[in-house]
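Action item from last week, closing it out:
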Amino acid sequence: MALPADLQLGVSAGAFELDRSEEVRDAVQLLAAQATRTLDIVSRHLDAPLFDQAAFLGAVRRLVLGSPHARVRILVLDPAPAVARSHRLIELAQTFSGFIEMRVQGLPNRRFNAAWLQADGMGYLYREFSDRYESTVDFYDVREAGHLVQRFDELWSRAVADPNLRRLQL
């Protein structure tokens, strides 16, 4: 089932089950494009088919340029593949380091395999297994989005900065 194009963050309640990469990519882009305050992303390797796409990167850029209070936090399990392929989200985070922060999950969470994106504490896309595209997306479920923010905060508090994700100052 294709994701309806008229979904609105903070308005369109009701979960959709997705299982194709294109559907998940479109949902991630739509959530990011409608966020006005926050995006939290948990990803194993920064999934290039989702997060290294022009539409997604443009949405993140608009978010951070649109508000001095915007905040994007990205938690990645293993950044090495993304660093090796010059992932454009890393470059964007380096450019807007005052708004976009990236951390790596600490050792206690190395077996963690879920992935998600939450937007403005209202909408989310959740994948139980980060290596699969089976997902649940909801554009207005404050309770579940809040739960994901809380889980993110717990993981974030134990995560560490990775020098490979920082811009070298010469």
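Closing note: The longest helix spans residues 142-158.
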